[in-house]
Design a protein that fits this description.
Helix content: 25-40%
Largest sheet: 8 strands, mixed
Shape: globular
Number of strands: 8
Order of helices and strands: HHEHEHEEHEEHHEHHE
Distance between the termini: 34 Å
CATH superfamily of the domain at 3-182 and 215-236 and 293-297: Vaccinia Virus protein VP39
């Protein structure tokens, strides 16, 4: 048995187990089932484009994210919960950071994404993937992890405070939660289409309708304070089109928002975005999107 697998089994058998029994009747606090981001949207091949977007987003942003994690103290041998791990690409990156002496627990409520994460990380003995609700981690014991990480999840939740409450519960005293999430007030492109402001407003209305918040970034530090975290530090990181094509930037940051529009506005939104894509190919283009990164600590 390799070191990572031994470390996991030692925790599971000889210490208070990190993972409790599986509860098939656990209550879900996830987003509305009618949301474009609900679990029902990731059950067939039509979800592949969105999964590819999530994977592209993870790869592009990881160089910034890993600096944040290392500055927070993440290193070989640590345990970290990847809450809302999706298809598991960040889980894989985290596995390389903690190495075989550490532990990464990927937590994903969607069955298809959970299975993808398991397949992607099958060769890492230090990785475990479980199918569990981020807002009701019934399968995870108290005081279990050195770190918890959740990225671009809070924006989708009707009550993100439930996730923060669960995160502080599963962290060891002195453990840290790192949150990465959007704030669309930090988005801009040039040349700027006159319809973009309205498009972002309508997309935000759509996400609010489903219980989410595309402007949650600047609210997270206070939310973490209310949840009981201490030593809270917030930073803003910009993601730009500098090293990728205009199409890639727009695909990652903007195109998916069409699904958030009211059906009556879909044609308008698609025509407007097609014009933005077309103009981005005709001349100079630059895009910038900002994300909030907030680190908080569980009191000793």
């Amino acid at each position: 048995m390799q070191i990572g697998a031994f470390w996991f089994n030692l925790l599971y058998i000889e210490m208070a187990p990190i993972f409790g029994p599986t509860h098939t009747n656990r209550k879900s606090f996830s987003m509305s089932s009618s949301s474009p981001y609900s679990s029902e949207q990731f059950v067939n091949d039509e979800a592949d484009n969105e999964i590819s977007r999530l994977e592209d987003q993870a790869r592009v942003r990881w160089p910034q994210e890993v600096v944040v994690l290392r500055n927070a103290g993440l290193q070989a041998g640590n345990s970290i919960a990847d809450i809302g791990c999706g298809p598991g690409i960040i889980t894989e990156f985290l596995a390389k950071e903690v190495e075989e002496s550490g532990l990464v627990l990927g937590i994903e409520n969607n069955e298809k994404l959970c299975n993808l994460a398991k397949t992607r990380n099958a060769s890492y003995n230090q990785v475990q993937i479980i199918n569990n609700d981020a807002c009701g981690l019934t399968d995870v014991k108290d005081n279990s992890f050195d770190f918890a990480y959740t990225r671009f999840v809070l924006q989708h939740l009707p009550d993100p405070n439930k996730l923060l409450t669960e995160a502080i519960r599963i962290l060891k005293p002195g453990g840290k939660l790192i949150v990465m999430d959007v704030d669309d007030s930090l988005f801009h492109i040039t040349p700027y289409h006159e319809g973009m402001t309205q498009f972002l407003f309508e997309a935000s209305k759509g996400q609010n309708k489903y219980g989410g918040d595309r402007y949650i970034g600047h609210k997270i530090p206070c939310m973490m304070f209310d949840a009981g975290f201490t030593e809270i530090h917030a930073s803003v990181y910009t993601f730009t089109s500098k090293n990728i094509t205009p199409n890639q930037f727009l695909d990652i940051t903007t195109k998916f928002k069409l699904e958030l529009l009211d059906p009556a506005l879909k044609d308008w939104g698609e025509n407007m975005l097609n014009e933005v894509y077309r103009k981005s190919q005709e001349g100079a283009f630059f895009g910038s999107a900002g994300v909030y990164c907030v680190v908080g600590e569980k009191a000793l």
